[in-house]
């Protein structure tokens, strides 16, 4: 756990923010290359990506506040917007981001679904790198495990100047398993669910790039595939999460899992509608 990479006086460079910025820059490079290959203006695509990032971050933060209001207070106004500390829910970015892109791309005269297909691999690789930031930040950790790749978290992060009593995993294990904050120094090993997500998203990135180049069946196909495949992975990965995501709808499934089910249904519906539209409009459909 390394929440702060460098600290100079009161100013700290947070690992979560660094990985988010790195992910965005890599995604921007991938997106521009895909745009050039598709004959679209890469500068317009880059501008759209920048504004969508800001709006998407706002959406992820708002959903996190709704799901975890206990982490926010009027006494810490900076904490409401300090996304570099963590506290983002990926599903919150989609509704606001897709709505903004619809109007932005329509204004610029770019095809909506084709642009989303171009952006999908970039979104996946950005998300993959961002999950490494979750691991360094100590959030989104998994359940206790005896598997050889289980990872314990230190009681106090490497940056001991941080105003925290212990890492989130260690604090939870003090409550669940009776660890002592005075005597113990490490949590029990847990599933590195952040790294599971990072690795899965990297393979999703490779899959989406392959579909975009070789099997782009119709506009919107790659984007809908991304949403569906990631949601299926996230649904099962949630069973390994140990950070107690809220469960307002069922004692057996987390809110995140309900979002995943909804996302798969919506993505499937759009796949069918876009396929029918492509047939009606005479889009060239390549055999799989």
What does this entry show, briefly?
The protein has 288 residues and is mainly alpha-helical. It is built from eight helices and two strands.
Word description of this protein:
- The protein has 288 residues and is mainly alpha-helical.
- It contains eight helices and two strands.
- The chain has a two-stranded antiparallel sheet.
- Strand 1 and strand 2 form a beta hairpin.
- The longest helix has 27 residues.
- The protein starts with a strand and ends in a 7-residue tail after the last helix.
Outline the fold blueprint:
Blueprint: E1 4-8, E2 11-14, H1 15-38, H2 42-67, H3 93-108, H4 112-137, H5 168-177, H6 193-214, H7 221-237, H8 255-281
Antiparallel strand pairs: 1-2
Helix pairs in contact: 1-2, 1-4, 2-3, 4-6, 4-7, 6-7, 7-8
Percent of sequence in beta strands? under 5%
Shape, principal axes of CA atoms: globular
Estimate the helix proportion, in percent: 55-70%
Q: Strand-and-helix sequence, N→C?
A: EEHHHHHHHH
**Rounded radius of gyration (Å):** 20 Å
Helix/strand/pairing class, anyone?
Answer: mainly alpha
Tally of strands: 2
| Main sheet record | 2 strands, antiparallel
**pLDDT < 50 runs, ≥5 residues:** 159-164
Number of helical runs? Answer: 8
Our measurement of the CA-to-CA distance between the termini, rounded to an integer number of angstroms, reads 44 Å
Q: What strand line-up does the widest sheet have?
A: 1-2
Domain count: the total is 2
Report mean pLDDT, rounded to a whole number. 83
